[in-house]
Amino acid sequence: MNIYLRLERPEDYRESEEVMKEAFWNHYTPGCNEHYLLHIMRDSPNFVPKLDYVAISEGKIVGIIVFLKSFILADDGSKKEVLSMGPIAVLPQYQRMGIGRKLITHTCDLATQMGYRAILLCGEPNYYSKVGFVAAEQFGIRTAENKFFEALHVYPLYSNALNGISGRYYEDTIYDIDPDKSVEFDRSFPQKERITGTPTQKRFAEVFAMQKDYEPIQKHFIDSCTHPLYKDFQELYDTSFPIFEQRTHEQQMEAFQNKAYKLLAFTEGNVFLGFISYWQFDTYCYIEHFAINARLRGKGYGSKLLDCFVRSMDKIVLLEIDPITDNISEARLRFYQRCRFHENPHPHKHPVYRNGYCPHPLIVLTTQREISPKEYRQFDADLRNIVMNFKH
């Protein structure tokens, strides 16, 4: 079967609305509103005509996809423009032939070229997870009512598009359909029976119930090995750093006794997200160790927690990373650069934590700006005389 895609034209509007009605009738609810939604959304200032595509087979429209501009109100108060996909429809007799996937792939590619950040939609998890969408909860994105919703999905359009961005997703208010106007609009179409209790309606009710309250990220200062989160910290610490970069148990206990040392842990609900161990000095803050729960890496938590930490400091934040020797170390440097850290030129070796190892070269990174040679010498002295001055 030959299927090709093209932009929708004004002369297509009625046929497209008929396709929408056929695809959604009795699907989510008795009857449907999607054909009326399509009719009115073209007049919205947020409608994106360049992404309004139809699928054609043998001269007739068999599928359609449309988009509106929407936004995420991020937890830091900023607005991030995104796209809302949908409705998307394929005539029932043409479903399961890859037409929906073709429409999605084509328009997602175009949206990337147009410079959009991400696409969001509410839909069946079992389908959209197969066409590149992931649960919005992975990025900390909730509904406008501030709930995590199983049906809310996101398609980032480029690498790290949503790193550090979490918040509430707001659609165009045009999606809030007036049911009376929808019924009136439907009278101009051939009438169909409204059926209650279909399998798809029951599934929709199940998915709609898959919502849970958002629990914001909590901060916890661990001040001893008896703290309830110390075990989580220790397990992540042991698996995140090579042995020669780890404090011994005795050295960790010594650090707890120093007023300049802080061990900050992060949780979200009952999930341990990660930690930052750091030292407060007069003119700067030194991050000794920073790690994210391995199951949550790549989901934006690292940049979010680090950004939150840096914003809480009124001074330069300094940390070290491995020299650039491979793709992994290059990616690590890019991550910190995206978090607004600057690479410093000062030759640097970190003192040893344990006997039998040698000082290892590291790169110094700082927020705000590069530090001067004098400032670097002060850091090096503090590192040797305070941070790494062990009794054991």
Automatic annotation (TrEMBL):
Pfam families: Acetyltransf_1
Annotated signal peptide: none
Record-level Gene Ontology MF annotations: acyltransferase activity, transferring groups other than amino-acyl groups
UniProtKB keywords: Transferase
InterPro entries named in the record: Acyl_CoA_acyltransferase, GNAT_dom, MshD_Acetyltransferase
Domain N-acetyltransferase stretches: 3-158, 220-392
PANTHER family for this protein: L-AMINO ACID N-ACETYLTRANSFERASE, N-ACETYLTRANSFERASE DOMAIN-CONTAINING PROTEIN
The protein's name: GNAT family N-acetyltransferase
